[in-house]
Amino acid sequence: MPDANPSTTPTVSGPGAPARCEIQVSVDVAILSIRDGALRVLLVQRTQEPYAGHWALPGGLMEVEETPEDAARRQLTAKTGLDASEQRFHLEQLATYATPGRDPRARVVSIAHLAFVPNVDDGMGDARWWSVDELLEDPEAPQLAFDHREIVTDARERVRAKIEYTTLAAQFVDEPFTIAELRAVYGAVWGICPTAPNSPAPCCRPRTSSNRNRAAPPGHPVRRSTAAAPPR
User: Fold this and answer.
1) Helix (H, G, I), strand (E, B), or coil: what is residue 176?
2) 5: buried, middle or exposed (CB in 10 Å: 19+, 13-18, 0-12)?
């Protein structure tokens, strides 16, 4: 969400034309990681009004010559100090948020993005990792700025859906990784603790006709190409 104060001055294009409000376009980034066995999101604490002191997703206004993805990577680096290059982690568009009044200063439309990273260093200034489940389900959790709680909710649902039919789980771990590490990712995302390494994890849905990973027992390193479905 931008820290600048966008203008809300209406403009008129011709005689008798209705007044139009200038619309600003911003980006917000929900960057997720598995840390200490939980799905976590990286937040920054706002220092300016509105919502001074509240926690928020890193983000800000797009520049004229930027694509949404370029703006998201720039803002992520600027607000958290993380290396947001394409080689570092995956980034995708999540949704557009345009409810009038979402920013009390102006009419701001946000193109939210979703990023997935393995465990990264903590040297990120004032940024802090928060448990997604606690933020969304604990009534005593801090209230997020703007509509960022809605964005985090949608981000969790996107991850829970994609992890069932893509190799997304492998984005949360460094290569080479083990079946046990991959199982822990599914447990953290779905909010169910995995079972012992030699028995099926309750968080993993049964598969019908795949023999992927059979040659890789628990604790044996595997590669991303073998991690397209929940491990047995």
Assistant:
1) coil
2) exposed
Indicate the SS3 state at residue 63.
coil
Residues in the chain: 232
Q: CATH classification of 10-162 is 3.90.79.10, yes or no?
A: yes
* Nearest-angstrom CA–CA distance, 93 and 110: 11
As a whole number of angstroms, the distance between CA 151 and CA 219 comes to: 35
| CA dist., res. 194 & res. 33, Å (int) | 17
Q: Omega before 206 cis (within 30°)?
A: no
Contact (Cβ atoms closer than 8 angstroms) between residue 81 and residue 124: yes
User: At 104, is the secondary structure helix, strand, or coil?
Assistant: coil
Nearest to 32, CA basis, from 216, 155, 193 = 155
Q: pLDDT by residue (tens digit) across 119-156?
A: 766 556 778 999 999 999 999 999 999 999 999 999 99
Return the domain boundaries, the chain: 10-162, 168-226
